[in-house]
Amino acid sequence: MTARFTDDAAGAASADGRQETAAGTRAAHVPDATVARLPVYLRVLLGLADAKVETVSSEDLAVAAGVNSAKVRKDLSQLGSFGTRGVGYDVANLLAEISRELGLTRPRGVAIVGIGNLGRALAGYGGFAPRGVQVEALLDADPGRIGEMVNGMIVLSVDDLEKVVANRDISIGVIATPAGAAQDICDRLVAAGVRNILNFAPATLIVSPGVNVRKVDLSVELQILSFHDQQRTRRPRGPAVPDVPEAVEATS
Amino acid sequence: MTARFTDDAAGAASADGRQETAAGTRAAHVPDATVARLPVYLRVLLGLADAKVETVSSEDLAVAAGVNSAKVRKDLSQLGSFGTRGVGYDVANLLAEISRELGLTRPRGVAIVGIGNLGRALAGYGGFAPRGVQVEALLDADPGRIGEMVNGMIVLSVDDLEKVVANRDISIGVIATPAGAAQDICDRLVAAGVRNILNFAPATLIVSPGVNVRKVDLSVELQILSFHDQQRTRRPRGPAVPDVPEAVEATS
DNA sequence: CGGTGTGAACGTCTTCACAGCA
DNA sequence: TGCTGTGAAGACGTTCACACCG
After folding, report:
1. Residue A162 vs residues A137, A192, A194: alpha-carbon distances, Å
2. Count of CB atoms within 10 A of residue B180's CB?
3. Nucleotide C14: nearest residue by CA–C1'?
4. Which tens digit of pLDDT belongs to each residue from A137-179?
């Protein structure tokens, strides 16, 4: 597990019983591990919907998402009972339910701070599935970059961060600055009311409780792969390519 | 947990007993969760070494790394007994041990495929700690980009992928292509002998056993944050900013 | 003392296996 | 019959608390 979320005193778990699927109440307390996989299911389902597939079994979804089918069923059952026994899940319905669970039904404004190559890549990412997550502002500290047009948006001065957060309803801040600036930007985002931060800078951010920070660190990822690379070569035996080339799912 | 590694039949675990710290044999079977944190400790230690700090306690290291001290001690004890009771850990020594455990003592060649904004950002990342991980080649399919100079390296044609992997001793492949090309590039990397892949494309890669894939998907991260953002607003009560602003560590 | 190293308790996530329903 | 939904078991990771030692 990469991320620790703030404990946020268990969200109003009414008794323990499951609620009617019909209107209103949603699942109380979806596990972090499940939440982390929902976006992957979402992507797969979008592809299926595009291909006019109407229903999908947990097994098929599992293969496409790179997990096993028990996990898919457990995950989906956390949100409610949306499958039909003997048949599978309705693609359109499941899409709607997962989108809802992820909070993608109303837009979440994103501001990207630091418009270097990484910031540009993020700004141009585009394919943010079914709306929901929308890049609303690009900020940078370099006067040479301010005013520049990137992906249809004008780069604004980081001096205006507080104003931008307030005016454009920013709920997620992405930090793509050098490590040295990360904590300061983070503090300002939090002070301005942002409670969700995605940090690409190689630095540990310290935040007050109630703020969610997720971190993506390229060099951490590469060093983990370095470890695994070494593991193979350290062991004298152990074929790099097993003679049973049975396909296996990856990470995602 | 974001990543699953291939099971790779437990690496020659000689009995269960701990080995002498002295020469030779290393810890058998370091948990994935620990491996994922070692790079963070490494980064912190580099900073300490830079500041001429000679020893560090598990508590101090923990604060700087954004974890708790029990975790630091458990993690480090997986590699051997390097601390001194009543004192702490020798920074230089710990740096060496972690570097060794991560396989950073001999260079691991990295090839980046797809030199868009993201690929450029990765190519220019630079700060790969204490050597070990070294970008050796940049590849792209766009003729307009081939031959271009990026961060001191010439962009090569992806047609030459197999040649490049062989000639430059590439052990880690980074996929920064559009989703549609990812599986094909992955297959070619694996066929060429690469056993470690870092995938930035929003696609699930299918690989044969023995190949490690790690995935970084921006839209997955944002959607997870969207979920948490929604969690707060869904709940009527629950102050966004608790009145006890006691600092708390973030993710990593 | 102060801080490491670690058994044991605890909590979370995954996997199994099967009851139950369309 | 086929596939979902889920209790129960097992694996894994975290946290606690303290023995041990410099």
Report:
1. 12, 5, 10
2. 9
3. A71
4. 999 999 999 999 999 999 999 999 999 999 999 999 999 999 9
